[in-house]
Amino acid sequence: MATATTGALDPTAGPVLVVGLGNPGDRYAATRHNIGHMVVNELAERNSERWNVHKAGAAVAEFRMGIGGPKIVLAKPANYMNLSGKPVAALLKFFKIGPENLIVIHDELDIEFDMLRVKRGGGEGGHNGLKSTSQALGTKEYLRVRAGIGRPPGRMNAADYVLRPFSTAEQENLALHIDSAADAVESLIEHGLTTTQNRFHQK
Questions:
Q1: How many other C-beta atoms are found inside a 10 Å radius of the C-beta of residue 176?
Q2: β-bridge pairing 143-148 and 58-64
Q3: Is residue 33 among the annotated active site residues?
Q4: With contact defined as beta carbons under 8 Å apart, do 75 and 22 qualify?
Q5: pLDDT tens, residue by residue, 83-106
């Protein structure tokens, strides 16, 4: 089990599975709902890894963090957001990973754009990707990197808002936001939850 005091990942629970939530296809690639995909793409690029199609229904990239470090499996489910749970559960089973070692990256309406929050467990806040994942796993006790996208302006419907591209103003800072989220994932793996919260919740 992950330690309660630090939220550290459990070396006995297998490799670390890092899932970026989003929708498949070019139509959705640049939308707010797909920031999870953007972050795992950044992590794959940092480690010079290519994506491969996995039978679990996801694109997967594998590498080891540092010399003698943990094995990392990056994943982008190949189906739509509200069906994310099935491939996540299948990947955990295939790689023999416990939910203690699952990190899910997702967009978060209740956090301002370019802000991050990390936590283990808790509710889904109406996020269909998280709902599907929790239902498929039978637990909510996995790590989340919550990348803020802010609330929709005016009376815009939230479902429409998350499926739109980032605004011109947001795009100016989007790369930094993605970098910070990728840094938070690496910090979770290397230093655990408490240290990562202390670092990334200060902004």
A1: 10
A2: unpaired
A3: yes
A4: no
A5: 999 999 999 999 999 999 999 999
Length of the chain (residues):
203
Annotated catalytic residue within 33, 54, 106, 177: 33
| Angstrom distances, CA of residue 152 to CA of 131, 162, 164, 167 | 21, 8, 10, 11
Count of CA atoms in the C-beta half-sphere (13 A) of 115: 13
**In what side-by-side order are the strands of the sheet with 16-20?**
52-54, 58-64, 71-77, 16-20, 102-108, 143-148, 116-120
pLDDT digits (tens, 9 = 90+) for 134-152: 999 999 999 999 999 999 9
Tens of pLDDT, residue by residue over 59-89, are 999 999 888 889 999 999 999 999 999 999 9
37-to-20, 42, 51, 152, 154 alpha-carbon distances in Å: 5, 9, 12, 21, 27
Sorted by where each starts, the structural domains of the chain and their CATH numbers stand as 13-200 (3.40.50.1470)
